[in-house]
Amino acid sequence: MSASCLEGQRHGPLVLRRWLGAGALGTVYLAEYPPTGHRFAVKVLHPNLAAQPEMQRRFYAEAHALRALVHPHVARVLDARPGPGGLPCLLMEYADGESFSRLPMPLAPVEAVELLAQALEAVEAAHARGLLHCDLSADNLVLTRDAKGERRVKVLDFGASAILSSSLSPQARERGMVVGSPAFIAPEQWSGDAVDGRADVYALGVVGYLLLTGRLPFGIGRAGELAPPEPHVLNPCVPPALSSVLLRALASRPGERFANARAFREALAHCMDPRARAAERAAALVDDVEMLLDIDIVLDEDAPAPEVPILLLPEMRVPQGNVTIFGQAIPEDGATPLHLALRAAAHAAPVLEAPAPRVAAPVGLEVRLLLEGEWVSVTPGDVSVDGLFAAWAGALPPLAARLEVALAFNGRTLTCVGDVVRHVTGDEARTWGVAAGAFLHFAEPGPALRPWMTWMLQEGSRPEPLPDGELARLLARAAEAAQDPYALLGARPDADFEEIRRRASAAQRRLEGFRARSLPFSQRRALDALRGRVESARRTLGEPFSRAGFDAVRGNLSGLARCVEAGLPDEEVEPLRHAFLAARPGSEARARALFTQGHALEAQRALRAALSRYANALALDPLNVSWLRHYQELRQRAQGLVPSMPPVLHEGPRAAASPLP
């Protein structure tokens, strides 16, 4: 570990807790998100490489491509951004386990094939996206445990070879310099020829040979066309068919190998007889039991003796130093069956991985997640500039899932993307007395997110202001006109469309003035709701078709007349009229009878009685445009001739005072 170690420094919301190792590209640290205890791996680009602009560009470009690679057997890339000292950093899923190079070899054939098949699944998924590894080795294949305790292979360092290769000068390439682990590099990589997915097939062939024999097929690197010893010669437990599959993967010419990772994986599966696999599994289990019986287990004197051994999963943290074998402490990240058994013998109960969410969100923060195509409102908590906890009652998305997030606070909104970094399951929620949910880490901060979150957290930490008296009175008056858009705008039922639009614009300007004031959350929400109602009133009354539908239900004949005057076509009104009448069976027949009576009275020059019959007919069939035109023309002719005109509004007041002066 160098003097420039970054342990203890921060990378955004993460703390770099422990140095994990270093490679040709960068140094890897175990990082922790303190609010939840969730762990990540952070790879920091070496300073000498970060000083090259082209290397930085390639580093971020590869990270962008790798973020879309999501597979159970790939250590996922979550983010890439500058970190401590401005050095480019890669945020990755932490693969907590043992590299293949540290496994006790040779492995039983069935076990080696199982591990190799998982690695091939990961490579197959990467190749499907056009991503090559080109530096697979026993050091970047890690054996971990999933949440159920099942063994799971994780492939690390996708993209590293491509980034390093971009740093080689033409002169270096001419001298034969290549990037990769010498023992695992395919011949075409040594010669500088074009490389495709069969180079990764070759590397995994070397890995399989190593797992089955305990030795590399060509030592530190391949020379010439010599074939390695057959695996079943070195290890009699290896079936000859399996030897043939591995030697084909190790062919010096790409055309003689398997065409792709899938073909290699299928060949491995076919060459293993199921009965032989079952026998090997049983033999391996007996060997493990015998090994456990032969090992002395020493417990610290202060460690309490357990009543019942409990199997602990790797993600359950166990204090170091309590278990020793021949005086040597078991490493915390041990994931082999032996280590798990020793842990079970030494510790009686699991230790929870992380604390429960406890910090309430700023009052007024609204968060929604896009889950399975629908926006779902969630209850936020533990909010920081880099992420938050989201609680809801539905099914939790998988870890590392990427979700769209919508944030709203004090009238301002923002959308972003978040990665699911930890679950609070139903069992944990009941234990802690909190709601179930998931912790999200913002995956693509962008230039707007951090300032927005900083502003929101600052505003949310301030004491809530007192209610605004003027706005409170306006809201109270507006509540009285909740169901009447005419009353909300203070417009008469026969107002023309220009007046409707003018009043709506004036009301919005009036409300906009309150948005700049310091308001409590409840008033700000009510103000936004009122602005929405004003806009709805404008859309309802400011357009002839929608106003005709509204006025027909209200029986506002003068408003309907304005719609006809505005040029509402009969063919647009007719479908609306049919729907209106269908909801009122028998009304059309009664309306026709009344209109016929009115027509007879008009012929007798009994205009007052005729207008009354017409009005009653239109109350039943208000969207009959021809009747409405005739009724309006007769009213105009009868002005001054009839002492008392029939009403033109059958529901609601003739005028209203606006609650938004």
UniProtKB/TrEMBL annotation:
InterPro entries: Kinase-like_dom_sf, Prot_kinase_dom, TPR_rpt, Tyr_kinase_AS. One of its GO terms (molecular function) is ATP binding. It comes from the Bacteria. Residues 14-269 form the Protein kinase domain. CDD domains: STKc_PknB_like (cd14014). Transmembrane segments: none annotated. The keyword ATP-binding applies. TPR repeats lie at residues 591-624. Keywords: ATP-binding, Kinase, Nucleotide-binding, TPR repeat, Transferase. This is Serine/threonine-protein kinase Pkn1. The lineage of its organism: Bacteria, Pseudomonadati, Myxococcota, Myxococcia, Myxococcales.
